[in-house]
Specification:
This protein is of the alpha/beta class. The chain has one domain (7-241): Protein-Tyrosine Phosphatase, Chain A. 47% of the residues lie in helices and 9% in strands. It has 10 helices and 6 strands; from the N terminus they run ββαβαββααβαααααα. It has helices at 25-34, 46-51, 100-113, 115-126, 141-152, 157-165, 167-185, 205-219, 222-228, 233-241, and strands spanning 7-9, 14-17, 39-42, 61-63, 79-82, 131-134. The chain has a 6-stranded mixed beta sheet with strand order 1-2-6-3-5-4, with helices on one face. A hairpin with a 4-residue loop joins β1 and β2. The two termini are 33 Å apart.
């Protein structure tokens, strides 16, 4: 299988995608080499990582969750960064998302409570590494980091919205594979948990436009937000201009 919903951003400095579905160690190595990936920012919770782990050979592991999860070996040229955000344990209820505006507000709640989560995700990009950013579906957590990353690297709001909405065409395949993954690992998971009718499993343009409008009202410009998120002035400028 593969990393799904995969596409480059910011001239290829950032890759966004899903988790590595069904990749053995050899396929993982081939994937990382093919795409020239120098850093992986894994936004998943410890449980999610345990269901679909990265299978890589050796190197160093950096774990930002403090949860004591086992170290994952990575090739020396690839930095694996665990930077988790568990949507079930932070602002807002996934079950309460009924409209596109609710979805945008959910995203805003994440970065309001955890601005450093975004800064940590974009730091390897600021340091000049070609970085894969991913969660499980590559839609929500990945979408938020990608949106701010695109703005920080000079992208327009229209480009951010178009990138977010591009996930829509990929969702049927991603949801099918995700449902099978959970069915095998957690058989008690209800089938409707992965229903495409749920707003939380959609990526409408209106959700991102709402998020961006509220982001601007609350945080002003993206550079100010990233400084608040823990990046240095040099790192913020490196995102804008290329390291």
């Amino acid at each position: 299988m593969a990393v799904l919903n995969l596409r480059p951003l910011a001239g290829g400095r950032i890759l966004r995608g899903s988790q590595p579905f069904g990749l053995d160690a050899a396929a993982t190595s081939g994937f990382l080499t093919e795409h020239g990936i120098q850093a992986i920012v894994d936004l998943r919770s410890e449980l999610e990582r345990s269901l679909v782990p990265w299978l890589v050979q050796d190197g160093n592991d950096k774990d930002n969750d403090g949860g004591g999860s086992p170290a994952v070996a990575v090739p020396p040229a690839v930095e694996l960064i665990h930077n988790p955000l568990d949507p079930n344990a932070i602002a807002g209820s996934l079950q309460s998302v009924e409209t596109a505006e609710d979805l945008g507000d959910l995203y805003l709640g994440w970065i309001r409570l955890r601005p450093e989560w975004v800064g940590d995700a974009l730091r390897p990009v600021a340091r000049g590494k070609r970085t894969l950013v991913h969660c499980s579906l590559g839609k929500d957590r990945t979408g938020v980091v990608s949106a701010i990353g695109l703005l920080a690297t000079g992208g327009t709001e229209d480009q951010v919205v178009a990138d977010y909405a591009a996930t829509t065409a990929n969702l049927p395949d991603v949801l099918e594979v995700m449902a099978e993954t959970w069915r095998l690992s957690v058989p008690s998971t209800p089938a409707e948990y992965f229903s495409p009718d749920l707003m939380i499993l959609q990526s409408p343009e209106a959700a991102m436009r709402h998020f961006l409008a509220r982001f601007g009202q609350e945080f002003g410009d993206v550079r100010s937000f990233l400084r608040e998120a823990g990046l240095t002035g040099v790192e913020v400028e490196s995102l804008r201009n290329g390291a």
